[in-house]
Every structure is written in C-alpha cells, then in structure tokens.
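name: query_chain
kind: protein
chains: 1
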Amino acid sequence: MDLAALDFRILAPIGFVAVGALMVLLGEVWVVPRNAGDAAEARRKASVVLVLVSSFALSLALYATAVTFVSGQASVFNPAHPMLRVDAFSSLASALVVLCALLSLWSSITYLPALRIDHGEYYALLLLSVVGAFAMVAAVDMLALFVGLELLSVPVYVLAGFDRRRLRSNESGLKYYLTGAFASALAVYGIALLYGATGSTGYAGIRAGFDASDPIAMSGLALVISGFAFKIASVPFHQWAPDVYEGAPTPVAAYLSTAVKVAAFAALVRLLVLALPEITPELRRVFTWLALLSMVVGNGMAIVQTNLKRLLAYSSVAHSGYMLIGLAVASDEALASLFFYLGAYVFANLGAFGLVASLARRGEEYERIDDFAGMAAHRPGLALLMTLFMLSLAGIPATAGFAAKFQIFRAAVDADGIALAIVGVLASLVSLFYYLRVPVAMYFQEAGEREPGEPDLFAAFTLVLCAFAILYLGFVWERGPLPLVPSARAAVAALLP
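structure:
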C-alpha cells in the first residue's frame, strides 16, 4: 500500500471523536477520587469534566466537517480501493449527527446524577457510536457501511439498557439488541446477495453490475432496505421503538430518535444514489407503501398514548413516513427536502426529549403527560418551550416543522406524488390532536403534588438553542445567513454521480 496516496485528512472527524472516547475512559479513572468524603459531589464534578472533554472532541469534529462542507471538495481515503468518501453530503450528515450527540450530551448532565447512573462509560459509548455514524454516511463500500452500522448500533444497545437497576431499562436494552441483531443479519445477508449478483461490494462496482431483472440482486437490495427500515423505525419494522424509547434513559432516547435516524437516512440515500443505475418504479412503490404505512400507523398509535416518551416514539415513526416521501419521489428536490426535514426534526425532537430529561429528580422521571399538568403556573418558561417543540413537530406555521413539511410536500406535488402529499397533510392534521394534549395539560389542568426538577445551565442552553433553531428555520430556510435548504441542495448535488 502506498501510504503517500492515502488521504488521512478525511479521517480527522473520526480521529477526534475516537480519541475523545479513549480520553473519557481514562479520564474517569484519573478524575474520579476513590476516597472522597462526598462521593456524590465528587462524581458530579467529574461528570462535568468528562462532558467538557466529550464536548471538545465533538466540537473539533464539527469544525472539521464544516471546513469540508464549505470547501466543497470530495476526498477518498484510498483511491485504489475506495471505502470512505468525504464530500458535502457526508459532511452535512456528519454535522447533524454531531449536533445530536452534543445536545444529547448536554441534556445528560443533570439527568444522569438524578437517576444515579452518572458513569464515564456513558460518554465513551456515545462518542463511539458517533464514530460509527461517521463511517456510515461516508461509506462507498458495503463492507465499510456494515462496519459503521455495527459500530453505531452496539454502543447504543448498551446505552438503551444503561440504567441497569430499572426493569424497563433492562427490557429496553434487550429488546433493542435482539431486534437490532435480526435487522443487521438481514442487512449482511442482503450485502452477500448483492456481492454474488454484481461481483463487488463497492458502490461503483454494484452500479456497474446491477441488473434490476436479476432476482438475486433485487432480493439482496430488499434485505438491505429492510435492515435500514428497522433503523429508521419505519412500519412494519417499528415495533421496537415505543418500548425502547420508554425504557431507555431519556437523553439516550433523544439520541436514538435523531442521530441514528440521520445516519440511517443519509447512508440509505447515498447507497441508492451511488449504487443503483436508477431508482426503479418498483422501488419507488416500496418506499411509497413504507411512507403511507408509517404516517398512518405512527399517527394512529400516538393518539392513544399517555406516556410522553411512547408518544414521541410513535411520532418518530410518523416522521419517518414523511421523510420516506423524499425517497418515494426520488427527485433531486425531494432528496434535498428530506435532508432539510431531518434538520428540522432533530431540533424539535431533541428539545422535547431534553426538556423531559431536565425535569428528572430524586431517581424518578417525569414522562407521563399528566406529569406536565399545571406546569405553566410554576415553570412558565419550560411550558413555553415545550409548546414550541410540540407545535414544530405538528408542523404549525412559523416553525421549522412547517417549513420542512411544506418543502417535502411541495417536492412530492412537483413530481406527481399528489396522493402522498395529501396523505401527509391529513396525517399532520391528525397529529395536532396528540401534540396539543401536552400544552393543554400544561396550561389548562391543575398541577399535581410532585414538583419537577430544574434544568441546569447546560440543559437550559440546549433547550434555548433548539428553540432558536426551530424559529430561525421557520422563518429563514430559503434565504438569509445559514439557510439549510440551499445547503441541502448543495449536498445532494455533490452526491449525484
């Protein structure tokens, strides 16, 4: 191997985060005193140090991805055998993943001590899963894609069951592990079939040898799509989501619902665009049915939920349906709209989960809708923020959620996907019922006896940042500084062969 031909610069984001994970693991041994008089206070201070180290590593990775996106240049680590390709598309997806990790991390500072699970392994596992996401979104070879998928998934399996003393958390981790292993088996079997049909694991080789009339090739593609459908929690591969979101620590549920979805959608789009000669009408019909079922089932099941985390889980299923419209339409504008939708969804969902996490205290969570009753009276600021997050998820005008749905529905109409747009609009109207239940409880019901906790400085900053992003993207998505839609279009344009 010619080392001079290797471009190690594209590994900078992965290197920053991987080194950060190692430093966190070592840092807990060095920082946490073993014979401290007040062990809880000593561990709290140590957790702040570990959060700062993790945040610094993620910030360096965010800067590296931003530089790559602004430069607009594409680089391959090993030109002789391409496995990873960093371009504007992978950089934008990686930046969204880093934002998800950072905001989830900052939501954990008060939450973890409140539930007595503030251990350094938590931060290391979070960082290692980000490394896997980076590999997924930059992969141009099925082997690199699978390695990234597993490196993303395995740490998250552990994080889902991180609160080992709670039965629900143990159940969450076990269910996610078993169903995730099954989905990974489907994906790797599909990769094997694609290799058998095309003679290559590289996207370029698959594109050259792919024959849509070959049943082996189509079966392999179907199995790979099924594996990704599990990761994005699309119907009928969604059954794990409600139980896992409910049982997992709330910041982990926030990370699951955003970062994993961003990485899976970005990797799937990259695979379809680079590895297939064209997205066939048959494949579009598959994504159309996945979108329709996800929108209908996700919104229908969310209506009857009384636990806010389960409600947000079914909401996540419904939002996967809205995003799948972009793949069902498969136009350049639809793919760009899908990317913009991911950005808008990330801030609203992280804000909602982050607020739930900030209320935890004394070993108990505030996750039922009834727990929010009367919050406007004694936590008016938090009630206003939660209302904004719910309105954005519902797609109310002047929020990022409305802008995202408008963009993707317009792209569907422009590409003769009127039926999908109509179902999406009707599903959004249904979602108003269950999203508005939370503001109604906060403003029109009497408060209970339990008093929720207060967000710390990091959690408050996270909530305000999410609220600002929602309002900013709600008003400025086409023009102005840092518009996301043109950035998404540039990313998709860089991806197209």
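note: The chain is about 75% helix and 0% strand.
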